[in-house]
Amino acid sequence: MGNSASSLPYTIGAEVDGGCREVRGGWALHEGSQKSNGTAVTVFQAHKPALGGKLEPALAHFSRCRTMMHPHILKVLATLDTDYPDGSTASTSTGKMTGDILIVTEHAMPLRTWLQQQAPRSSNSGNHHQADELAWGLSNVIEAVHFLHTTAQLAHGNVSVDAIYVTRAGDYKLADFRLATPMPLSQHFVQWNSKCCPQNYQSPERLNRDWNAINGAAIHTMDSYSLGILIKEVYSLAGMGGVPDKLQKAVQRLQTANIKMRPRVGPLLKCPIFQNPYSTLQEFLNGIATKTSDEKLVFYQSLHHATKFSLLHKGLATQKVWPALLQTIAPGGGTSSVASPNAVTLQDSQRREVLAVLPVLFQIMEEFLVHDQEEFQRLVTPVIEKMFAISDRGIRGALLTKVSLLEKQLTPAKLNSAVFEPMCSGFSDSAAQLRELTLKSTIVLVPHLSPANLEKLVRYLVRLQGDAESSIRTNTVIFIGKIASHLSDTSRQRLILPAFTRAMKDPFTPCRLAALRAVLHCRVYFRPKDVAAKVLPCVVPHLMDSVQEVRKEAFAVVDEFMIVLRAESQTMALQEKSNPQPQQQAPNDPQQQNGYSTFQGTTQQQSQQQAAPSSGNYLSGFSSWATSAITSSAKANDTNVSQPTHNAMGPGGNSSMSSLSQQPQQASSSSTRPLNN
């Protein structure tokens, strides 16, 4: 391919559709990608010595395609002649002809290949959509040929199925300018006409080499005839049973043998077959940059409905609709505050557009992207980061309902940085609905969270236990019970028992029930000594709870733990028999006067230390983090917390927690920003 090919900012991959070089005039078709961002491209490559007698038409196309710019002409991104890497050109008779010529274009595939890959639709609606897609593609070709005739003042000369390429979005693109000629006909066209254009696409005067008749007619006459043949072949290759009735008369007029009666191609676009919902959708997307905010809002809202959404295929959804949605999400008109520089506040019109876009975004994710994780991550990750940066409750709520979808597709690193960390502001939002939705949505992320973020989550859970909303306190207890297995041993021992103990004292009946059930669910994480000294003393009072359902659950917990304690007691008894340890008393020990041995006194002291509210110690540590704004007078009320008691959660242990529950909002506002209305 020549050493200079590496200078292109594109990577050239394997050849595709290798058996069709002949119809492309000797050009090989390669997949490629842009080196900087991996965007897919198509590369046409030809080795000059291998072209032989086709070299001159290939060079004519190489020169002409660089000057052709139209939405429905295959877009050229770069060209290279390895014999002349500086961009200069030379004639075939005097120039160097030992290297390669390359043309890099937007990603597309030959129309013939695309039609073969389109499986016939089984349903009536599927056939209808396929017919609309074909009509849209043919209208693209008509517009491109009309542009050549009216603006470029050229006849294409080789309109055929092999001169058309199709993008992933379903747009047809005109290419192959080997025979492009002004009028009167160029000598190049006369010389190469029969060798480049398929015979069935040539009009009668071309077959008869009646150049005078062609020169004396309008510029469109040759291409009009070829276009009629193209339309018939497209519908035939697509298996649609021939040209639609509404188009048959127009096609017949295009193929008339009388050159002077052959119509121009532009008026053909007025045919009703080209006015269909799919074409309307494509036209709106092509001109969306010029649409007003209200027009785009109506379009997005209608696109969400099943009837219109069914018009989309994966290529159209990802190549046209998705970029249009991104422009709506990040138009550059948002503002950020000094307090929260990463948060973006939208104007009201932008907010309405984003809320209309979100349902379509998630529909595309679920319909077209979930089966391709690499493409999902490439397209969705930047969107999610932008969306979570928007400070709006409605938008945040819509995102939270789809966290489970993101959890299945994004990498753990992105889930931590792009999803969980921005979500955390919802834990301390002033709206109770958003706090609760944030809590429920986080459950699926817990297995993927880093240790640092797990600790961060634990701190938010401690705060939520003092929430003013009883339903949030209840769901927090349920949440803690569900995530216990994902916590480290240290975090688990510090969190679950204090959390459950506090919830058992909640005046809200479902919260007490949830705590009892969570204790039973997490029983494997409690040591027998903790069950006897800390768990049961908190559960037993609920045997006489005023609510029958709570009493029933408390009895179930006690019965279960009594089985555990009896088994542990029997194990201890067997150990004592196998390893007897006689106790010795000091003769002058003053504690003997009270009937206690030194060992007994030590054991009692250790028991008192163990019975001290370790949950209080843990929550006391969190109190200093969560209540930093509380005044010293409030701290004075918590002096009893440090006093050891025989009860695992005595009055001293509850004092710190009550101060937390009285001022939950005061604690949270200093570390995280609330979302705006």
TrEMBL record:
Protein kinase domain span: 1-308
Name of the protein described by the UniProt record: Protein kinase domain-containing protein
PANTHER family named in the record: N-TERMINAL KINASE-LIKE PROTEIN, SCY1-RELATED S/T PROTEIN KINASE-LIKE
Xref: SMART domains: S_TKc (SM00220)
Coiled-coil stretches noted in the UniProt entry, renumbered to this chain: none
Biased composition (Low complexity): 579-616, 655-671
Organism: Attheya septentrionalis
Compositionally biased tracts (Polar residues): 637-646
UniProt-recorded Gene Ontology molecular function terms: ATP binding; protein kinase activity
Pfam family, one: PK_Tyr_Ser-Thr
Membrane-traversing stretches: none
InterPro entries listed in its UniProt record: ARM-like, ARM-type_fold, CIK-Related_Protein, Kinase-like_dom_sf, Prot_kinase_dom, Ser-Thr/Tyr_kinase_cat_dom
Region (Disordered): 573-617, 633-677
